[in-house]
């Protein structure tokens, strides 16, 4: 949907196809359900200008297309490989009705070699298959699409790849034209590099705790090195979301398929699980070592701030372990409502603090910084705040009469009241 609305905003005429009738009619009426800044506006403008439509039925929709973008999901399948059933099904469905010369473009993250498989499956030498991976982050997808760091297009038909690159001519971004395999690998290589970077940062944060150093200063010192860069250097409860976990597993599988043991990447995945365990141990320590029966207030459930996405959320993973170990969880996330098994989800941060032995920040929503922490302290039973995102100002927490511990930073202990 983001791809469709953004391509329409570049001046193209776009028909978005989905199998979900209800979703299609909601979108056709301009109702956008996902939390994605700027998207609803683009959808409204596209609909009003007649450049964007939403339909069910792929065969009719593609009959006169110059390009068809496959944006279907490629979830983690058996054994960690990408599940390509949706890509294959839609290719088989539309193969014989694509017009001559129409580019069949894969946006979905697909293993190296998929373009070739699609080319074979579509059975049409007159239909070039082009890989055009997207690098959109949730929560900033529209801004990422319209202000990309780069456009990558790859095909064994280079003229077709260039033509797809030209669809983005309005945007001021370098275009990397590649063969199909290289373009397909760029997406995995980039996402897995980001995962490696974060696992590395989380390991350095652990070292900081053991050595008495401060990760915020260490990463500040590292980040000014332009070869490293200042972004994607924040420690946390582990990396999650709908892309990094599935793409790291899929690349390990891709490597296995060519007999390469990608130990660096498997270590990064293991380190990510170890980080969750360390966070659980830290929370257990804050409640005296035993989680059974502890009342834990959880701030944040989404996999990162700015989204309501719970898929592969480290916050949810940590919460589930806490529940399994017998803790009682009261959770609040500004973008999440409804029921989550094992915990009580409330709609106000202060309810989380009520009678809590410890309050844990698991997602970096800015609003948690601006809570009245003195009021939170009043409501709490215990005095500990575990801030897995290093979001809060430790001085504010200590001034409120509480103790603060983050990740990779020195603890700030509550002042003992002298009566
Ligand atoms: C990611 C890629 O960034 C994007 O290019 C790709 O197209 C899709 O996958 P997204 O899944 O939306 O995007 O999330 P991202 O912002 O990359 O965060 C991934 C995870 O890393 C989150 O759990 C986030 O909390 C964590 N993270 C990110 C950190 O722990 N520290 C950081 O410094 C940055």
UniProtKB/TrEMBL annotation:
| EC number(s) on file | 1.1.1.22
Q: What class of enzyme is it?
A: oxidoreductase
Q: Which GO BP terms, alphabetically? A: polysaccharide biosynthetic process; UDP-glucuronate biosynthetic process
Q: Does the keyword Transcription apply?
A: no
Entry superkingdom: Bacteria
- For this entry, the protein name equals UDP-glucose 6-dehydrogenase
Which pathway? Answer: Nucleotide-sugar biosynthesis; UDP-alpha-D-glucuronate biosynthesis; UDP-alpha-D-glucuronate from UDP-alpha-D-glucose: step 1/1
Stated family: Belongs to the UDP-glucose/GDP-mannose dehydrogenase family.
What reaction gets catalysed by this protein? Answer: UDP-alpha-D-glucose + 2 NAD(+) + H2O = UDP-alpha-D-glucuronate + 2 NADH + 3 H(+)
Provide the binding site for substrate. Answer: 135-138, 187, 232-236, 240, 304
Q: Which residues bind NAD(+)?
A: 18, 23, 74, 109, 138, 246, 311
By its UniProt entry, which Pfam families does this protein fall under? UDPG_MGDP_dh (PF00984), UDPG_MGDP_dh_C (PF03720), UDPG_MGDP_dh_N (PF03721)
Keyword annotations: NAD, Oxidoreductase
Q: Does the keyword Signal apply?
A: no
Question: Which SMART domains has this protein been placed in?
Answer: UDPG_MGDP_dh_C
| Active-site residues, as the UniProt record annotates them | 243
Chain ranges of the UDP-glucose/GDP-mannose dehydrogenase C-terminal domain = 297-394
Q: Which GO terms describe its molecular function?
A: NAD binding; UDP-glucose 6-dehydrogenase activity
């Amino acid at each position: 949907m983001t791809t469709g609305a953004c391509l329409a905003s570049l001046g193209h005429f776009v028909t978005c196809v989905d199998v979900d009738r209800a979703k299609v009619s909601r979108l056709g009426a301009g109702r956008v359900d996902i939390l994605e800044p700027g998207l609803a506006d683009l959808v409204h403008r596209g609909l009003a200008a007649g450049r964007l439509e939403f339909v069910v039925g792929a065969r009719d929709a593609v009959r006169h297309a110059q390009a068809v973008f496959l944006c279907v999901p490629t979830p983690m399948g058996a054994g960690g490989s990408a599940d390509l059933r949706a890509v294959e099904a839609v290719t088989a469905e539309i193969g014989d009705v694509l017009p001559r010369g129409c580019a069949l473009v894969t946006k979905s993250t697909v293993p190296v070699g998929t373009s070739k498989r699609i080319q074979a499956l579509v059975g049409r030498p007159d239909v070039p298959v082009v890989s055009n991976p997207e690098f959109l982050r949730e929560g900033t997808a529209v801004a990422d699409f319209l202000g990309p760091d780069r456009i990558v297009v790859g095909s064994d038909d280079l003229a077709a790849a260039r033509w797809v690159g030209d669809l983005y001519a309005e945007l001021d971004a370098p275009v990397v034209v590649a063969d199909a395999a290289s373009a397909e690998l760029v997406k995995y290589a980039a996402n897995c590099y980001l995962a490696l970077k974060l696992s590395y940062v989380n390991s350095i944060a652990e070292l900081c705790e053991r050595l008495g150093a401060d990760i915020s200063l260490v990463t500040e010192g590292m980040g000014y090195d332009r070869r490293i860069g200042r972004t994607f250097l924040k420690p946390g409860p582990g990396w999650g979301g709908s892309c990094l976990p599935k793409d790291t597993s899929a690349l390990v599988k891709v490597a296995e398929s060519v007999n390469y043991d990608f130990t660096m990447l498997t270590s990064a995945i293991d380190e990510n699980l170890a980080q969750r365990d360390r966070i659980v141990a830290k929370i257990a320590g804050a409640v005296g070592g035993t989680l059974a029966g502890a009342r834990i207030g959880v701030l944040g459930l989404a996999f990162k701030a700015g989204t309501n996405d719970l898929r592969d959320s480290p916050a949810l993973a940590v919460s589930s372990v806490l529940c399994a170990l017998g803790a009682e969880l009261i959770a609040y996330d500004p973008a999440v409502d409804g029921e989550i098994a094992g915990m009580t989800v409330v709609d106000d941060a202060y309810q989380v603090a009520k009678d809590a032995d410890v309050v844990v920040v698991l997602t970096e929503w800015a609003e948690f910084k601006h809570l009245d922490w003195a009021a939170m302290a009043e409501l709490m039973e215990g005095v500990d705040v575990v801030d897995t995102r290093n979001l809060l100002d430790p001085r504010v927490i200590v001034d409120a009469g509480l103790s603060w511990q983050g990740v990779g930073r020195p603890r700030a202990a509550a002042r003992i009241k002298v009566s």
